[in-house]
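[Automated response] Your request has been received and processed.

Submitted sequence:
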Amino acid sequence: MVIAIISILIGLLLPAVQKVREAAAKMQCQSQLHNLAIAIVHVGEKQLPPMFGTYKGNAQANVFAWMLPALDQEVLYTNQFYYREPLRILKCPSDTNYDPGFNVFPTDQYAFTSYAANYQVFGAPDTVDTSLGVPVGSLQGYAKFSSSFRDGLSTTILFAEKSPKCLTYFTLWGYGPGQPAVGNNWDHLYMPIFAYGNSSGTQGYYSPGDLVNSGAVGNPGAMFQPRGSFDPYSVNCAPNRAQTPHSGSMNVVLADGSVKPVDAEVTPGTWWAACTPNNKDAVGSDW
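Generated structure:
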């Protein structure tokens, strides 16, 4: 009888403990996103770093790499193999699909991330190259806090969550053009990026390493995938979109530095409006 009562009590207690743990993990994830925003402000007060490209006269690198000095990673910043290093601040504690590193390519290893940058902010959404027969988007953005957010700092997303494992792809925080393993034959589906396409949301862009699969843009194409709606190992996981490991909402950090849990039931139109900084498209009442 006593054993039966104890078993019932444990059964009642476990869900409550799990909820507390998930709430704590979600708060830590939000804190890490806030620290990414602080880092962006620190290194990009006058001009934000690009999704991938040259910055302040320095050689090409990924947006996350340009933030390393502001993330107390000065030593790693000067290491040519910086992209191999798993960083705790780039791992969401709720993300069970995270791995510190994986030999994705035969010649090199890259570290994963649970977060991705908004191409509409850090890239050049309406600058394209069509020499390969399909539109390839420029990653060299020149956004400024002072002039690039006409739709509002508090309603434009800088970073969102993204599954580090999606189908056969891995979200790699240091990945981009010019990396030793791939040269300029980069594939956007491996990059920590979402909303990769034109600002009007009518055309997802391609990459030299993938001329078949495009980025996901517009309403409803760019809508993030809530927890429970995708399996990282199944075809229903879209590597060109953002995903969240949390129940009920997607954590994002906005251009004003605030962190917002975006409800999983938010309309795709509102989500796309929050992705674009200059479209003069206001977010809906569900924001």
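Summary generated for your ticket: The chain has one domain: 2-275. The CA atoms of residues 113 and 233 lie 17 Å apart.
If you did not submit this request, please reply to this message.
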